[in-house]
Amino acid sequence: MSFFKYGMVVDGENYCPRPELARQFSQLVDSGLNVVVQGERRMGKTSFVYETVSAMHGIELVYVDLYCVKTIEEFCRRMITAVSALDRRTGFLRRTAKLIANLRPVLTIDRDTGTPQLTVDAKAANTVASVEDVMDMLSAHAEKRRLCIVFDEFQDVLELDVADVLLARLRAKIQFQNKTPHVFLGSVRNRMHEIFDSPKSPFYKSATSFTVGAISPEDFKRFLAARFKLARRAVSDAALDRILTIADGISGDVQELCETIWLATRNGDEVGEEEINAGLRLVFAREGKAFGPILARLTPIQSAVLKGLARTPGVRPYSGDFMSECGIRNVGTVTRALTRLTADDVIYEYAGTWRFANPFFREWLNAR
After folding, report:
1. I need a labelling partner for 203 at 20 to 30 A (CA). Which of 47, 218, 265, 303 fits?
2. Alpha carbons 118 and 98: distance in angstroms, whole number
3. What's the predicted TM-score (pTM) here?
4. What is the largest CA-CA distance in the chain?
5. How far apart are the first and last CA of the chain?
């Protein structure tokens, strides 16, 4: 077993609580408001929403994962699967089937698990009108039970050929489900802004913005120290500070580094700089093959700027000292390099500074 979970929805003892943030979010959901959850990659947005809504009394979670959804039919299937998870009893699924009769539903029994499953005809479910049928089905269930609909990776609907029409139909249905909160999560900053902040979008100003940032360092350190203790490792406060610094406080990256440190140590070990470096080397072994090709695609100037940012986190790239160190003579050259690196999702701007999308890439560059 691993004592540190990442890259998945975590709950229970594997989840680091955020009580104040959860209180604020619960109030929005309890008020029936629609919420768009923002935050950088791997900050634990999905786990936060999943854990918080699941813990709310009297509200049932309908979790719809839209990652890489390619067709309307697939969108409908994922919605139906999410609703079916509310209640696996045959009677509930039969009632659900009646509500989406136009999609030619079929109730079957899984041979391996013996549980009933609801499927729909691929052709019948591959029209935008079928989305309206599914949303009407949700409304019917919401009359008898209090639901919270969570759409994860919502920005992926933009990849559908009929994205504009789909968003318009969804918005038309959601605005009448005013007692059911809808939560929209996304991991691509500009694409979510395209949906919720563009005046041309049907979802413009349709949801309250809520930010999930880094976990409080003190709260995170207490949680991590407890996990290391459970794993029979001792860890100092200074070592935890170093771990959070390396991973930029990004929840998923912090947990990944802690996991590799655990793998690189034994029961009774004390985690210090040497053990942290050993964990980093394991991370490099996993991810390093992707870093080399990124570097190879860059021009010498772009590479120099990237390495300069890696050497001095928080540095001002337009300062004379930075440009001199990188061998650059004018601001325009730096701007073009930063634009390319941002477009390639290597770095991003955050509170006036430039950060690596993957902090382990920064450490990999510095270790070379």
Report:
1. 47
2. 11
3. 0.89
4. 72
5. 32
